[in-house]
Amino acid sequence: MANRREFLRTAGQATVGVWLAGGTLPGLAQSARREVTIGGEPVTIVDIHAHCVFPEVADVLPEGMATPFNAGFPGLTLGADRLEVMDARGIDIQALSVNGYWWYAEDRDLAATIVRMHDEGLAEWCAMYPERFVALSSVALQFPDLAAQQLEHAVTELGHRGASIGGHVANEPPTSAEYDVFWAKAEELDVPIFMHPNNAMNVVREGGLAGRGNLGNIVGNPLETTVFLTHMMFDGVLDRFPGLKVGAAHGGGYLPSYLGRTEVACEIRANANCANTKMPSEYLRDQIFVDTMVFSEEGLRHLVAETGVSQVVYGSDIPYDWPDTIDIVVDSPSLSDADKRAILGGNLVELLRIQT
Q1: Which of 76, 79, 135, 155 is most deeply buried (CB count within 10 A of its CB)?
Q2: The pTM is what?
């Protein structure tokens, strides 16, 4: 929606009480709300994996600089259609984030301006619909000290519930000592950091995933996630910050599916030089959480078997057109009703401190 701010101003003329009472805000068509039940009782569904953009950021970019995000992709710009899609699926609450991370290549001042506009835009939207949305900041991770300041401001001043980051900065994992100031701040604030990949651009040579099948996304995204999580373990970040909670999109990439190889790497590879003090499986069952985007009952069963129920959360990838996993969770023969409730919402209600 090109005139998102006009929409927000119009909606802002209505009182929040109208929304809480079940009314319809100006400019927003009322849509049918699917109610998802488990054991005959409704369940609150919380979504950790929800994309958005703020096209007005283009106004602060240098003249001639191409708009580095696909603001025209249907549903990325926040508007009435976002709630309609959520209602149709049965999603009660989304944790929104801007996660293209193109600003990692910008200078400090411009990156600070971009992140501020994102954070303020998210806060504005969440204030309009406090029962439907929470926000994750998307910090300028290329400047770890600034990223720490941005995270603190977003959480303590704007009410954001954590941050979203990319899997690499200038092709390097954010796991060296220079990033400790950011990880320390996340641990201090006790907020989760959700990592979203960008086609493994830091891992695969240029053109290496070209050709049929959109492999940059299909193979590259889970590959980047796997590399990121493995660095977080083997480089010692999760040991240096034992209270840190790190989320990973797309079911944690390939890590849970081939955990055995990672589990023995530090013991059998003479050149491994691992800095971790625990087994990878221990981090996966404690400090790392993953979303449900595995698209099959067997994939979900295996994911839970490797991570435990407490580490799996629902993710939709809205507005991108992937199969939804709500019914896979609801219909799963391998999960108890309590497990299903935890995965679809309970784990994130606790992690993101959502009042229900």
Answers
A1: 135
A2: 0.89
Per DSSP, the three-state class of 164 is strand
* Farthest CA pair distance, the chain: 65
* Tens-digit pLDDT profile for residues 283-314: 999 999 999 999 999 999 999 999 999 999 99
> What Rg do the C-alpha atoms of the chain give, in angstroms?
20
| Dist. CA 194–CA 39, nearest whole Å | 31
The residues pairing with 289 across neighbouring beta strands, listed in sequence order, are 247
CATH fold of the domain at 32-351: TIM Barrel (3.20.20)
Sheet with 46-51, edge to edge strand ranges: 46-51, 93-97, 133-135
The strand pair at 193-195 and 246-248 is best described as parallel
> From residue 107, how far is each of 111, 121, 141 by CA, in Å?
6, 21, 11
Extract the tokens encoding 336.
Answer: 């108890």
Tokens of 257: 């599916």
Tokens for 332, please give them: 């799963």
Q: In whole angstroms, what is the distance from residue 343 CA to residue 322 CA? A: 18
Residue 14 pLDDT greater than 80, yes or no:
no
pLDDT at 31: 60
Cis bond before residue 319 (omega within 30° of 0): yes
- Where are the chain's structural domains? 32-351
Q: How far apart are CA 314 and CA 326, in angstroms?
A: 8
Please calculate the CA angle 103-104-109 and round it to the nearest 5 degrees: 65
Helix, strand, or coil here: 323? Answer: coil
Mean pLDDT, the chain, rounded, equals: 91
Tell me: pLDDT of 3 over 60. Answer: no
- DSSP, collapsed to helix, strand or coil, labels residue 103 as helix
